[in-house]
TrEMBL record:
Stated family: Belongs to the SIS family. GmhA subfamily.
Domain SIS as annotated: residue spans: 38-196
Positions with a binding annotation for Zn(2+): H62, E66, Q172, H180
Origin species: Alteromonas lipolytica
Name assigned to this protein: Phosphoheptose isomerase
InterPro entries per the UniProt record, alphabetical: GmhA/DiaA (IPR035461), Phosphoheptose_Isoase (IPR004515), SIS_dom (IPR001347), SIS_dom_sf (IPR046348), SIS_GmhA/DiaA_subfam (IPR050099)
Length: 197
């Protein structure tokens, strides 16, 4: 096994995925639209919820923390929760209702109309994310997909941010760019007066 060859190939593929993203004007516009959707929800006193499995669970809590704490500059916290972090809730729902209901149950209990739900799935086929999107839609909660090119999720949501790859790690590495850009635009649009000159 040639580690340096592996590193070069991985970096080449992740750069190619980002270049495809940059060349896709419609995708960039949808990312701007997703930020505008979050701004509208937050200005109306609503919140942004994130959910995903595995690496996407980590992305969910990373991005919710960015909203509540800070991203590029100091400003008031923004309401956001990751539905992936409370082990008591996750084990109770998983044990009593099944893993497929992990996120939809939390959306039903804690979501309100006008919130934004961001479902993150590289395959686009994680059932607990699909069910959470369906639950959100039934409650008037806006839905955003962070996905790849496959699965059911890309055709389900109000706004679809599809990383242009079919390979989980490159999709994930693009998703965290989506999330950082989303946080950065929301912060700028909502708190321009807090930005250091
Ligand atoms: O982080 C990784 C792979 O990079 C894994 O933990 C990965 O997130 C898990 O296999 C997830 O269960 C995949 O779910 P999904 O992205 O297909 O919805
Ligand atoms: Zn991973």
């Amino acid at each position: 096994m040639d580690s340096l060859k592996y590193i070069r190939e991985h970096m080449q593929k992740t750069i190619e995925t980002k270049q495809k993203m940059l060349a896709d004007e419609a995708l960039l516009q949808r990312l701007a639209d997703a930020a505008a959707l979050c701004v509208e929800a937050l200005k109306n006193g609503k919140k942004v919820m994130f959910a995903g499995n595995g690496g996407s669970a980590a992305d969910s809590q990373h991005l919710a923390a960015e909203f509540v704490s800070r991203f590029n500059f100091d400003r008031p916290g923004l309401p956001s929760i990751a539905l992936t972090t409370d082990t008591s809730m996750l084990t109770a729902i998983g044990n009593d209702y099944g893993f497929d209901k992990l996120f939809s149950r939390q959306v039903q209990a804690n979501g309100v109309a006008g919130d934004v739900f961001v479902g993150i799935s590289t395959s686009g086929n994680s059932v607990n994310i699909i069910k959470a999107v369906e639950q959100a839609q039934s409650m008037g909660i806006h839905t955003v997909a962070f996905c790849g090119t496959g699965g059911k999720l890309p055709s389900m949501c109000d706004i679809t941010l599809n990383a242009p790859s079919d390979c989980t790690p490159y999709i994930q590495e693009t998703h965290i760019s989506f999330g950082h850009i989303l946080c950065g635009i929301v912060e700028e649009l909502m708190f321009a007066e807090f930005k250091p000159q």
